[in-house]
Design goal:
Helices cover about 70% and strands about 0% of the residues. It has 2 helices and no strands. The longest helix is centred in the middle third of the chain and has 22 residues, at about 20-40. It starts with a helix and ends in a 10-residue tail after the last helix.
Length: about 50
């Protein structure tokens, strides 16, 4: 299923003329954002730490 999602992402990116490198940068930023949200959810940091 994850492979199908990845394929769909790259197909959409191709249709929008977004390079693979740009997709990877967006993915990295999203992963970093999700990691921060998880740290906040677990109470390890507060939202004020990111301002």
């Amino acid at each position: 299923m994850l492979t199908d999602i990845n394929c769909a992402v790259y197909e959409i990116a191709d249709a929008l003329h977004i390079s693979d490198e740009e997709v990877e940068l967006i993915d990295k930023a999203n992963q970093e954002h999700l990691a921060k949200l998880e740290m906040i959810r677990l109470g390890r940091v507060s939202l004020s730490n990111f301002n």
